[in-house]
Design brief:
Largest sheet: none
Helix content: over 70%
Strand content: under 5%
Number of strands: 0
Number of helices: 18
Shape: globular
Length: 438
C-alpha cells in the first residue's frame, strides 16, 4: 500500500489527475447542457427530422475522418519528445489539415449541389465544418502539456452560446436547417477560442514555420492512423447511413437518439489517454517491467470505468430514454441497452491504440480497425433489414470487440496486450485480485 501511496503522491500523477479533472468538468457541463438542450432539440425535431440531421452529420463525420489525417497521436508524441521543434510540427500539421479540409468540403458541397446527398441542404451547411480541424492543432499542444483547463474554457464558452441559440430556435419553432447552422457556429467559436487561449498559454503558433520535409515525415508516420481513423468512423457512423437507405430517416432518428446517450461517454477514454500519456512514456524509459505494470493499470482503469457506466445504463435504459426524449422515442430504449456495451471495447481500444503508437505499430492498428469496419458493414447488411436499429447496435458491439480486443491475439508482438485486455475485462470477477496486487 505504501507503493500505491508513493505513486499517488508523485507530481506527474497529480498533474495528470488535474488535467483529467478539467476534461471531466468540460464533459460534465456538456452532459448537463445536453440533458437540458440536446434532448429538447430532439423532442422538437422528432425522429424524422432528427434522422435527417443525424444522417448529414454522419456523412460529414465520415469525410472528416480523412481530413484529420490521423495526425493527433503522432503530433502529441512528437511534441513531448521534440519540444524544440514544436512550432515546425504544429504549423506543418495545420497546413496539411487545411488542405485536406478544403478538398473534403469542396467534395461535399459538390455532392450537395448535385442533390444526391440525401439531405443536400443540411449537407451543404455542415460541409464547412471540415475546415475546423486545421485550427485545432494548438489544442493538441495544450493536451500534450496537460493544460486541459484552457481547452475546457474555450469549449464550454462555445457550448453555452450555441445552447442559448438552440433554445431560441426551439422557442421560434425553427426548421432543421437552423440547427445545422448552429452546429457550424459552435465549431467555429470553439476553434477561435482555442486559438486565443493557446496563444496566451505560450503555444508557438507560427504558420511560416511549416516545412515540407516535416509534412512528408508526418504523413509517412500517420497514414496508417489515417486509414484506421476512417475505419473507426465507418463502424461508428455507417450504421446511420445504412439505416437511412435500408429503413428510413425515422429509424436513423431513433438510433441516433440512442447512441447520443451512449457515445457521450466516449470522451472518457480519450481524456484518460491525454492525461496518462506522459506517465506511460516515463514508465517506458524506466524499463519493461515498469512499462507493463503501468499499461496493465491503464487497461484495468479503462475497463472498470466502462463497466461503471455500462451496467447502470443498460438496466435503466427505458427510464432514461423516456426522461430524455419522451414517449415518441420509446423504441430507442432497447438500442441503448445493447449499444452501451460497445463502450467497454471502445475504452480498451483507445488504451491499446496509445500503446500501438508508442511502439510504432500503426499498421496493425490499421489492419484491426479495417477488419472491424468490414465486419460491421457485413453484419449491418444481415441484421438491419430484420431488426432495424437494434440490429445495428448489435453489429456495432461485435465489430468493436473484434477490432479493439480479439484482433490483438492475431499478432505476435501485440498478443501480450491481448492478455492484459482480457485480464481487464475480467475485473468484475477478479477485482479482488487487483486490490491485493495494489
Amino acid at each position: 500500500m505504501q507503493q500505491v501511496a508513493d505513486v499517488m503522491a508523485g507530481p506527474g500523477l497529480k498533474r495528470a489527475l488535474a488535467n483529467l479533472g478539467w476534461l471531466f468538468a468540460e464533459r460534465g457541463v456538456r452532459l448537463g447542457l445536453g440533458v437540458v438542450v440536446g434532448f429538447l432539440v430532439a423532442r422538437h425535431l422528432g425522429p424524422a427530422q432528427l434522422g435527417a440531421l443525424s444522417y448529414a452529420v454522419a456523412l460529414t463525420t465520415l469525410v472528416g475522418a480523412v481530413v484529420s489525417l490521423g495526425l493527433d497521436a503522432v503530433v502529441k508524441r512528437d511534441l513531448l519528445c521534440r519540444p524544440e521543434a514544436a512550432a515546425e510540427i504544429l504549423a506543418s500539421s495545420a497546413i496539411l489539415r487545411f488542405a485536406a479540409g478544403a478538398i473534403g468540403a469542396g467534395g461535399l458541397l459538390a455532392v450537395a449541389a448535385s442533390g444526391r446527398g440525401g439531405e443536400p441542404h443540411l449537407l451543404g451547411i455542415l460541409a464547412l465544418t471540415l475546415l475546423q480541424p486545421a485550427f485545432l492543432m494548438s489544442e493538441v499542444w495544450l493536451q500534450a502539456h496537460l493544460r486541459a483547463k484552457w481547452v475546457a474554457a474555450a469549449q464550454i464558452g462555445a457550448l453555452v452560446v450555441s445552447s442559448i441559440l438552440r433554445l431560441g430556435l426551439i422557442a421560434a419553432d425553427a426548421p432543421v436547417t437552423a440547427f445545422a447552422w448552429v452546429v457550424l457556429l459552435e465549431l467555429a467559436l470553439t476553434a477561435v477560442g482555442i486559438q486565443l487561449v493557446a496563444r496566451r498559454a505560450g503555444c508557438p503558433i507560427r504558420p511560416r514555420a511549416a516545412r515540407r520535409t516535416e509534412m512528408r515525415r508526418l504523413l509517412a508516420e500517420s497514414w496508417p492512423l489515417l486509414f484506421a481513423g476512417v475505419a473507426v468512423v465507418v463502424y461508428m457512423k455507417i450504421d446511420e447511413v445504412m439505416l437511412r437507405h435500408l429503413v428510413g430517416p425515422a429509424a436513423v432518428g431513433l438510433y441516433s437518439a440512442a447512441t447520443r446517450l451512449t457515445e457521450i461517454w466516449f470522451f472518457v477514454p480519450t481524456a484518460l489517454a491525454s492525461s496518462l500519456l506522459p506517465a506511460l512514456l516515463r514508465a517506458r524509459e524506466r524499463g519493461d517491467a515498469a512499462y507493463r505494470l503501468r499499461l496493465q493499470q491503464y487497461f484495468d482503469l479503462s475497463a472498470a470505468a466502462a463497466y461503471a457506466l455500462s451496467i447502470p445504463m443498460a438496466l435503466a435504459a427505458p427510464w432514461v430514454v423516456r426522461l430524455a426524449y419522451g414517449a415518441a422515442f420509446a423504441e430507442s430504449a432497447p438500442i441503448v441497452a445493447v449499444h452501451i456495451w460497445s463502450s467497454v471495447f471502445v475504452f480498451l481500444g483507445v488504451a491499446r491504440g496509445q500503446w500501438l503508437v508508442n511502439e510504432g505499430l500503426q499498421r496493425f492498428y490499421l489492419a484491426s480497425t479495417v477488419a472491424g469496419a468490414v465486419l460491421n458493414v457485413l453484419l449491418n447488411l444481415l441484421l438491419i433489414p430484420r431488426w432495424g436499429g437494434l440490429g445495428a447496435a448489435g453489429a456495432t458491439v461485435v465489430s468493436y470487440a473484434l477490432a479493439a480486443w480479439l484482433a490483438s491475439y492475431c499478432h505476435r508482438t501485440v498478443r501480450p496486450t491481448a492478455t492484459m485486455q482480457t485480464t481487464a475485462l475480467l475485473i468484475p470477477l477478479l477485482g479482488w485480485r487487483y486490490l491485493r496486487r495494489s
